[in-house]
Amino acid sequence: MPQGDAIAVLFALQAVLSLILCLLLVSFLRRFHQSFLKHWSLSVAALTGYALITSASLHLAGNEQLSQTMASILSTIAMAAIALHLAWLMLGAWEATYTDQVGRGTQWMILAGCLALAISGALLFGLPGVFDAWRESAPFSPRHVLAGIVFIGTAVGLKRALHDTGMVSSWLAPAAFFLFGLHQLVLSWFANWQPAVGLFLADSALIQGLGLPLQVLIGYSIIIWMLEIERRRSDRAIDNAERARERLVHFHMHDPVTGLPNRRQLQDQLSEDVQRASEKHVKVAVIAIGLHRFNIVAQALGWQKTDHLMRELAARLRRESPQNSILGRVGERDFLLILPGVTRPDSTIERVRRLIKTCTQPLTVNDQEVFLNLTAGVCLAPDHEIDAVALVNMAQQAQMDAAGRGETLLIHENTGPLVRPHDLLQLERELRNAVGEGQFLLYFQPLISIKMRRISGFEALLRWQHPERGLLTPGSFLQEAVRLGVLDELEDQILAQALGQLAEWQQDLSLPSLSVSINLSAQRFQQPDLVKKIKTMCKRYKVNPEDLHLEITESTAMQDFEAGLSTIAQLRALGCKVCLDDFGTGYSSLAHLRRLAVDYVKLDRTFITNVERDPHERDMIRAVVDLIHSLGMTVLAEGVENRQQLGYLLHCRVDVVQGFLLGKPSPAHVYQSALDETQLVFGPDTNPGPDQDDSQPVG
Fold it and tell me: What is the mean pLDDT of the chain?
């Protein structure tokens, strides 16, 4: 093969390798969105064009088919391509080194300058006698010298940028760029001006061909670099999400302002203390402490100063409390103190009086003296009650009675054997009658798809239309329904009503596609015929199982993990979407989340309660959302009550939102007109009323 044809083949191979590398960089660009990858993609694309033009020129010149005019045109285009190649290479190297973008104006200036220099050089060397003068004064190829300098400079920049990373690419990528730059410098001494094609080309195919394996090495080094970045990003995301999960568990069990245990943790602790007290024949004192005129103080100080005030008050209460006591915060103005192992109730009550008196002293907030008015209510276990929830409620009721009477402290008074609205036998009769008479009904709260910007579905929430007590939420009857064995019939009604309403929506062709979500209790989730029953009811109501979303809590899924995995797999095989409810409040690990393989993950409302005040909470949400997305799952956030929270969730790329801002739980007909809306219409910022309790696992 003639020497010219061999060089042409080498340039053709270089064009192929450059094209492959260009496509590879483009794929990395779509994955990583780094500006330096964009410039390097363009740089390699320009190099591909240069190699193709050079190969074609050599082939035509060898066959004597290249006129002088065509040679001048092709050489000018080739020089312009190589100039763009080097310019984009420099821009990408600078951005990779300094992790910053070059301004658009600066980019255009550099590209225009390089193009002008290349075109003028191509035209200048094409003039008769110019090359002879150049050859006598400087016997080397200026194009190859410039390329060598740029590649070696890129190697130095990459070494500087990657030297602290400890990655394989931290030395491999700089070495590959350095060797290719060195090859270009060596090549400049062996390149001669070829008037037939108007370019500096090497006479030796061997020297020219050495650039091919070096170009392959550059490609491999970039692949390894990007893979290492991806691995580090994944490891970092997992670490951030794990730390976020740990913070969420802590946040769910503690008050965000004071750091004290919240109601849930206190009730768990109180249950253990009551059990130990019963075994040791001692008592447990539960003291509810409330701050009077809280709303007035909050309005006068503002929320930031009010939070500071509550932290100072919490520190004072903790300082004055007995060493073996447990102090927590159960409301904006309410604290709870648990004193285990009480043997002398009178002495304990007197000590509480002294504590309240001491803590009532004024506090100073930003040089402003704030007078406190504290009242307390006390109840004792097992004298008054042995249930932790009831004990807390009794202590708080005694505290409110004390505030109403203008007293500092009141002890709960037992007026009957059990303070409940109805005894269990009466309640059981009422529950069974309610199931038989259809007194239970469903309210629906909209789920808003951020991508579609409209209602994509509803969560079905249970209500009891009691003939005497009015509309009741699950918190006032569901636990008793579980204890009395009424839950199974009740859940059948919930599923039937939800599917019936969904079928009605789907029959209206003017409405968009909708889904309905219902909560499964642990009892129902563990039933072996669950999937069969759901399949039968979907057929009865002619509903596509894909439009039925089933929500389970972390604790439900973790009771029998392997059996839960099987049930979830069967439900998804049927077509149902499975949602992990109250994520972040339980104890499942990230490894468990991967294995559960649910479709949706619902972030508990505690995720966003403090999101407006604490930037760390926003970072935590973003980390958790990114992790859930990386597992291929959809993120749903509940409890959105104002526009600020919604804005932060949009920024964190949450997929679906739910809350009072977007719609309160209401009968289905209330949302009939809203379903026709094509755009989100937000209502006024609002907070849930005290009667809205949908924290129960059913309905």
Answer: 80
Residue 342's pLDDT is what? 85
The pLDDT of residue 422: 43
Q: What are phi and psi of 418, to 5 degrees?
A: -155, 120
Give the orientation angle of helix 263-280 with respect to helix 211-253, to 10 degrees.
Answer: 50
Band the pLDDT of 699: cuts 50, 70, 90. Answer: low
Give Cβ neighbours of residue 538 (< 8 Å, ≥ 6 apart): 499, 544, 545, 548
User: Which residues on neighbouring strands pair with residue 201, listed in sequence order?
Assistant: 192
Which residue matches tokens 């919604």?
646
163 secondary structure, DSSP code: T
Helix, strand, or coil (residue 261): strand
Residues paired with residue 581 on neighbouring β-strands, in sequence order: 553
Give the pLDDT confidence score for residue 678 in this predicted structure: 52
Which of 212-221, 421-430, 657-666 is modeled with the greatest confidence? 657-666
Residue 635: count of CB within 10 angstroms of its CB: 24
Among left, alpha and beta (phi > 0; psi -120 to 50; other), residue 604 is beta
Q: Where are the domains of the chain?
A: 3-238, 263-411, 424-676
Calpha distance 203→193 (Å, rounded): 10
Residues whose CB falls within 8 Å of the CB of residue 15, separated by 6 or more in sequence, listed in order:
48, 51, 52, 55
What does residue 107 show for φ and ψ, rounded to 5 degrees? -60, -50
CATH class of the domain defined by 424-676: alpha beta
What proportion of the chain, given as a percentage, has pLDDT over 90?
14
Instruction: Say which amino acid occupies 465.
Output: Q
Token look-up 């389970």 returns 552
Helix (H, G, I), strand (E, B) or coil at 581: strand
331 secondary structure, DSSP code: S
The CATH number of 3-238 is which of 1.10.260, 3.40.50, 2.60.40, 1.20.1070? 1.20.1070
Phi then psi dihedrals of residue 156, to 5 deg: -65, -45
pLDDT of residue 185: 86
| Dist. CA 581–CA 647, nearest whole Å | 22
Tell me which amino acid residue 84 is.
Answer: L
Residue 491: left (phi > 0), alpha (psi -120 to 50), or beta?
A: alpha
CATH fit for domain 263-411, picks 3.40.50.261, 3.10.580.10, 3.30.70.270, 3.30.200.20: 3.30.70.270
pLDDT of residue 193: 65
Beta strands in 319-477 (DSSP E): 326-329, 334-342, 363-365, 368-370, 374-381, 409-411, 440-449, 454-466, 470-472
Q: Report residue 322 as tokens.
A: 């007995």
Name the DSSP letter for residue 402.
H
Structure tokens of 101?
A: 């973008």
Segments of 599-658 assigned E as strands: 600-603, 634-637, 656-657
pLDDT of residue 127: 53
Question: Is residue 46 a contact partner of residue 82, using CB atoms and an 8 Å limit?
Answer: yes
In this predicted structure, which of 190-194, 255-259, 418-422, 625-629 has the lowest mean pLDDT? 418-422
What is the per-residue pLDDT across 168-221, written as a single tens digit (0 to 9) for each? 878 888 898 899 889 888 888 777 666 666 677 776 777 777 777 887 888 788
Task: Please identify which residue in the block is written with the tokens 């636990």.
Answer: 479
Same CATH topology for 3-238 and 424-676: the answer is: no
Asked if residue 697 has a cis previous peptide bond (ω within 30° of 0), the answer is no
Identify the H or E element spanning 199: strand 199-202
Between 1 and 25, where is the model more confident? 25
Measure CA 416 to chain center.
Answer: 50
Do residues 1 and 59 touch, judged by C-beta distance below 8 A?
no
Q: Judge whether residue 665 has pLDDT over 60.
A: yes
φ, ψ of residue 241 to 5 degrees: the values are -70, -35
Residue (of 299, 332, 295, 300) closest to 313 by Cα position: 332
Q: Does the pLDDT of residue 67 top 70, yes or no? A: yes
Chain mean position to CA 223 = 28
